[in-house]
Amino acid sequence: MVTATLTEVAKFLRPGITTAQIDEMADTFIRDNGGVPSFKGYHGYPAALCISVNEVVVHGIPGSYELQDGDIVSVDCGVYMNGFHGDHAYTFGIGNVKPEVLTLMRVTKESLMLGVAQASANNRVGDISYAVEHFTSKVHKYGVVRELVGHGVGRKLHEDPQVPNYGRRGDGKRLKEGMVLAIEPMINLGVRDVYTKEDGWTVVTADGKPSAHYEHTTVVRKGRGEALSNFAPIEAAEQANTELNSSYYKEETTTA
Ligand code: MF3
Ligand code: CO
């Protein structure tokens, strides 16, 4: 259900729509399909989705902001259905995104998949954390956000253990087959420092540079972890939508 929702979001995105319009569409889609948005009302959070544009890291509240060519948009979606929560996030590009920002998005997504691979029975939480941190901050020189972490997910949205995106191999709780974890790297183009805005939710980078966020609901398995959420349909919809909107974006390119 979380993947189906983000696939709908992928089809819906274009310059000029507001983040509140995206949220409204997703809220309706989730309920029409028998789910309940997990985030709405969670500690007073006011919307179905978190929509975090550019320098917003996570927990952006949907509102009147209109998407523009060149923006990146992290959309985080939680759905409660059949007694369990799913938690899933994807960062989309709108039109002509700067190459260095596209690379940030690709590397963040890859770091998530490296983390998922480490969700292996008898590994420890730190093996996931290290995989994400090493690839993003050592191989690439990005800022790894420390103030927010991944988490267990199941009958409750947030369960033990915490899953930081930084740490050491072999540290932390041992992973057992069947445990379900939300692994969610939040990676900044610049410094790792973030702060929370006056609204109490919106987390932004300290230097104002963009940040990417991808998240999979992941089951611990023997050998390697298995993502229950799936980027393939989202990516297919993203591709089709980009082609659909390409005439709009082309005009922008000629002026660049
Ligand atoms: N996916 C986010 C998280 O993992 C969303 C929480 S937003 C909230 O923790 F509104 F629900 F708090
Ligand atoms: Co989460």
Short description:
Helices cover 32% and strands 24% of the residues.
Helices and strands, with pairings:
Blueprint: H1 2-12, H2 19-32, E1 36-37, E2 49-53, E3 56-58, E4 72-81, E5 84-93, H3 99-117, H4 125-139, E6 143-144, E7 150-152, E8 159-163, E9 180-183, E10 186-188, E11 194-196, E12 203-205, E13 211-213, E14 216-219, E15 226-227, H5 232-244, H6 246-254
Antiparallel strand pairs: 1-4, 2-4, 3-12, 4-5, 6-10, 7-8, 7-9, 9-14, 10-13, 11-12, 14-15
Helix pairs in contact: 1-2, 1-5, 3-4
Bound molecules: 2-amino-4-trifluoromethylsulfanyl-butyric acid (MF3) and cobalt (II) ion (CO).
Describe the structure.
- This protein has 256 residues and is α+β, with helices and mostly antiparallel strands.
- It has one domain: Creatine Amidinohydrolase (Alpha-Beta Complex), CATH 3.90.230.10.
- It has 6 helices and 15 strands.
- The chain has helices at residues 2-12, 19-32, 99-117, 125-139, 232-244, 246-254, and strands at residues 36-37, 49-53, 56-58, 72-81, 84-93, 143-144, 150-152, 159-163, 180-183, 186-188, 194-196, 203-205, 211-213, 216-219, 226-227.
- The strands form 4 sheets. Strands 8-7-9-14-15 form a 5-stranded antiparallel beta sheet. Strands 1, 2, 4 and 5 form a 4-stranded antiparallel beta sheet that branches.
- A hairpin with a 6-residue loop joins strand 14 and strand 15 (226-227).
- Helix 1 runs antiparallel to helix 2 (19-32) and helix 1 packs parallel to helix 5.
- The protein is globular, with a radius of gyration of 17 Å.
- 2-amino-4-trifluoromethylsulfanyl-butyric acid binds next to strand 4.
